[in-house]
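Colleagues,

For the teaching module next term, I've prepared a clean inverse folding example: a structure given as tokens, and then the sequence designed for it. I'd like students to try predicting residues themselves before seeing the answer, so please don't circulate the second half yet.
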């Protein structure tokens, strides 16, 4: 009997040992395999919502990932937007997306075309797989201080101050192989345009060319170079624009770095005489000095030649024009920025009078003018204008500029003057 008891106890112990080993292996297998988070973000399905009913149509697309966490967040946004669209009596809604992968990072960027609004709406989602867990990424390799600095060059202080007050949730990122677009949405700004920025992965600005704009307008700046010349050049450049700077010889001489900076960054330099004298009231010898000395100074600084001339005060009687060896450029939009020194007034005057082939007169020596330019360029671009130099404008109209001839615009109504 004792022998049977011993065998029975042995069998029980053996069973308990096998049971313990089984539980140990099972627990380890479970802990090693939270397969719910072992996600390959490159694997996803394209899902769609297509509705056509009396009064409205919806075509919406979104990705379904293996991660329920990611998919639920994206679906929640999509369905919320659709419900809002229907409740507001929308007519047509299109939602499309793009996906960008980099290592363990994924960017999902939605573009929404809603008949309720005149502008596209954007929304981005960014995720990263880190130690087998999905994490939301608010910023990925983005220097936000640099972004704000660049936006301050591109846009007016009112727009930039608004951006500074926003949370990261209001930033929308579209990643590409070259860099990242930073988008905002129209409902955050009281402007005819929506701020945006395109950076490479070294936080340098990338410019995208566009062929959509059909009109051109020339910006011109007198009386420089001055304290704001380089800032104006930066603003023009970051907005993919150019301009003509009519500079004074006596200021070129003592501010050569600004002259070189404008020239090296694609701006056109014209002469505004040497010392801003009224050319109609000086002798022939003085006239020759006012013209030639500026030409020589510019050539010595840059190695290039001046091709355009703007007479001080716009004064140049016929006997004076005969002695000027350059095309003479006036204007047909006078902002009077020197008189009002008000950025909003200058901006509103430009927008109200803009026309294809127009030449705008401003002065580069006023801070208010710099601010007005930041306000005007994106608004004009939204209106379908490219902002260009005088020579670029003339070339676009297939006009050959003739020395001694005065031009105040390049449209059909007043060419030449």
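(Answer key — instructors only)
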């Amino acid at each position: 009997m004792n022998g049977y008891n011993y065998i029975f106890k042995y069998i029980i112990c053996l069973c308990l040992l096998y049971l313990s080993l089984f539980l140990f292996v099972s627990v380890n297998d479970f802990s090693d395999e939270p397969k719910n988070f072992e996600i390959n973000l490159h694997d996803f399905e394209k899902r769609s919502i297509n509705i056509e009913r009396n009064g409205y149509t919806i075509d919406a697309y979104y990705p379904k990932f293996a991660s329920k966490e990611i998919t639920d967040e994206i679906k929640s946004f999509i369905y919320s937007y659709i419900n809002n669209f229907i409740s507001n009596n929308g007519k047509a809604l299109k939602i499309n997306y793009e996906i960008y992968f980099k290592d363990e990072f994924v960017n999902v960027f939605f573009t929404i075309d809603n008949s309720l609004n005149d502008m596209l709406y954007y929304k981005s989602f960014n995720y990263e797989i880190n130690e087998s867990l999905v994490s939301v990424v608010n910023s990925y390799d983005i220097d936000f201080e640099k972004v704000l600095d660049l936006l301050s060059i591109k846009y007016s202080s009112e727009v930039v101050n608004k951006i500074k007050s926003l949370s990261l949730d209001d930033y929308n990122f579209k990643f590409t192989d070259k860099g990242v677009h930073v988008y905002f949405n129209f409902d955050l700004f009281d402007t005819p345009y929506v701020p945006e920025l395109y950076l490479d992965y070294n936080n340098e600005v990338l410019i995208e060319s566009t062929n959509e704009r059909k009109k051109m307008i020339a910006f011109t700046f007198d009386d420089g170079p001055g304290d704001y010349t380089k800032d104006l050049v930066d603003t023009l450049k970051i907005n993919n624009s150019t301009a003509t700077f009519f500079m004074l010889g006596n200021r070129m001489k003592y501010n050569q770095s600004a002259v070189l900076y404008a020239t090296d960054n694609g701006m056109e330099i014209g002469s505004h005489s040497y010392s801003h004298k009224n050319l109609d009231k000086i002798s022939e010898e003085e006239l020759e000095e006012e013209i030639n000395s500026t030409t020589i100074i510019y050539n010595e600084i840059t190695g290039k030649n001046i091709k355009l001339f703007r007479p001080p005060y716009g004064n140049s009687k016929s006997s004076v024009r005969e002695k000027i060896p350059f095309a003479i450029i006036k204007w047909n939009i006078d902002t009077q920025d020197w008189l009002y020194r008000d950025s909003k007034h200058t901006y509103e005057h430009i927008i109200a009078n803009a026309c294809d082939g127009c030449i705008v007169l401003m002065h580069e020596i006023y801070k208010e003018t710099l601010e007005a330019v930041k306000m005007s360029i994106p608004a004009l671009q939204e209106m379908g204008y490219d902002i260009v130099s005088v020579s670029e404008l003339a070339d676009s109209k297939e006009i050959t500029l003739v020395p001694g001839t005065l031009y105040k615009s390049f449209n059909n109504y007043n060419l030449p003057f």
